């Protein structure tokens, strides 16, 4: 398969390229705005996805699959609406159109987000909970889910949108993600540093490790899409954990005491990322997608990426 991956130099993209390269079966086309120093991709395109000329160059050869990971995340999208429109909507529409025109019904995997739901505090959340996004980022993800479903219904692409939960532990660098504090917890524990949590001990989050996210994306490449719901969208299984329990497990695995953390809850952050209710998400599990099995394994998998 010739597989185009956008956001290929990002946290998930790098690991996805490496996993596909290990299989040794694919032509991997890595696309991003910067080079990945140790990329194992077959071919790399470095440029601006907002440029129609650049996108046309990427899809000059037909592609069998497009994994669209590139995005401007939540916090950055709120701060720069025009850039969010260009990257999360305009560039995404351009990519989907280019993929559609490059081959007959290519597989499209769109990395959506649980942000598409909006308020997750009233549970249990199910596969049929309606989308009512509140952040610009979540609204744009929901819009693209609809377009992937439309193109699939028309027979232009064979698409699936996967709603990812919070992914840990991301690198300690500016990401534009308001939820970055969740990854910062891991880095602080490993470095023996003090950490101030912006959410309370009772805050609850939906989380997944990078290795688990990569396995789910790989699974989507070969998924029998005839079994998907009409929306062609799935919310991935995930581990729901309280901040208090997460701190306890992280401190145990890092070999430090729990008092390396204190709490200074920010109401806005807690409302957005710390009140994620219980869920009954069976549809993706029935199709072979998985979670990290437990909070203990989630933390171990997250530490393996640091």
Explain what the structure shows:
The structure is a single chain. The chain is of the alpha/beta class and 306 residues long. The protein folds into two domains: 2-165 and 209-235, NAD(P)-binding Rossmann-like Domain (Rossmann fold), CATH 3.40.50.720; 167-207 and 238-278 and 293-303, UDP-galactose 4-epimerase, domain 1, CATH 3.90.25. Helices cover 40% and strands 19% of the residues. The chain is built from eleven helices and 14 strands. The strands form four sheets. Strands 3-2-1-4-5-7-11 form a seven-stranded parallel beta sheet, sandwiched between helices. The protein has a three-stranded mixed beta sheet with strand order 8-10-12. Strand 1, helix 1 (11-23) and strand 2 form a beta-alpha-beta unit. Helix 1 (11-23) crosses helix 7 (210-221), helix 6 (181-191) runs parallel beside helix 8 and helix 8 (243-254) crosses helix 11. The two termini are 31 Å apart. The mean pLDDT is 96.
Give the helix/strand layout.
Layout: E1 2-6, H1 11-23, E2 27-32, E3 43-46, H2 52-58, E4 65-68, H3 74-79, H4 81-102, E5 107-113, E6 125-126, H5 136-153, E7 158-164, E8 166-168, H6 181-191, E9 195-197, E10 204-209, H7 210-221, E11 233-235, E12 239-242, H8 243-254, E13 261-263, H9 267-273, E14 279-280, H10 283-286, H11 295-303
Parallel strand pairs: 1-2, 1-4, 2-3, 4-5, 5-7, 6-14, 7-11, 8-10, 9-13
Antiparallel strand pairs: 10-12
CATH architecture of the largest domain: 3-Layer(aba) Sandwich
Task: List low-confidence stretches.
Answer: none
Number of helices: 11
Largest sheet: 7 strands, parallel
- Count of beta strands: 14
Tell me the CATH topology of the largest domain: Rossmann fold
Radius of gyration: 19 Å
Alpha-carbon distance between the two ends: 31 Å
Quickly count the domains: 2
Secondary structure class reads alpha/beta
Portion of residues in beta strands equals 15-25%
Lateral strand order in the biggest sheet: 3-2-1-4-5-7-11
Mean residue pLDDT: 96
Helix content: 25-40%
Tell me the name of the CATH homologous superfamily of the largest domain: NAD(P)-binding Rossmann-like Domain
Q: What top-tier CATH class of the largest domain fits best?
A: Alpha Beta
Q: Shape from CA axes?
A: globular
Order of helices and strands: EHEEHEHHEEHEEHEEHEEHEHEHH
């Amino acid at each position: 398969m010739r597989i185009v991956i956008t956001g290929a130099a990002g946290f998930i993209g790098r690991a996805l390229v490496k996993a596909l390269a290990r299989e040794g079966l694919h032509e991997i086309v890595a696309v991003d705005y910067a080079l990945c120093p140790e990329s194992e991709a077959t071919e790399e395109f470095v440029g601006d996805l907002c440029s129609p000329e650049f996108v046309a160059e990427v899809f000059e050869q037909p592609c069998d699959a497009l994994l669209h990971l590139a995005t401007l995340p939540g916090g950055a999208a709120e701060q720069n609406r025009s850039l969010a429109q260009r990257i999360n909507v305009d560039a995404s529409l351009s990519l989907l159109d280019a993929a559609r025109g490059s081959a007959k019904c290519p597989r499209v995997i769109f990395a959506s987000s649980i942000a598409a739901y909006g308020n997750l505090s009233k549970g249990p959340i199910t596969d049929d909970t309606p989308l009512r996004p509140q952040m610009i980022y979540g609204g744009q993800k929901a819009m693209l889910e609809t377009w992937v479903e439309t193109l699939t219904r028309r027979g232009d692409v064979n698409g699936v949108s996967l709603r990812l939960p919070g992914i840990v532990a991301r690198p300690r660098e500016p990401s534009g993600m308001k939820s970055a504090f969740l990854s910062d917890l891991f880095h602080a524990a490993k470095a023996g540093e003090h950490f101030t949590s912006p959410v309370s001990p009772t805050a609850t989050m939906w989380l997944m490790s990078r290795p688990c996210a990569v396995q789910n994306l790989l699974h989507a490449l070969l998924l029998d899409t005839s079994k998907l719901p009409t929306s062609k969208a799935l919310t991935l299984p995930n581990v729901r954990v309280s901040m208090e329990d997460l701190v306890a497990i992280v401190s145990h695995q890092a070999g430090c005491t729990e008092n390396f953390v204190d709490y200074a809850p920010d109401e806005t952050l807690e409302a957005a990322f710390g009140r994620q209710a219980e869920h009954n998400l069976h549809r993706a599990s029935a199709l072979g997608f998985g979670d990290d099995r437990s909070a203990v394994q989630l933390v171990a998998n997250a530490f393996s990426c640091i």
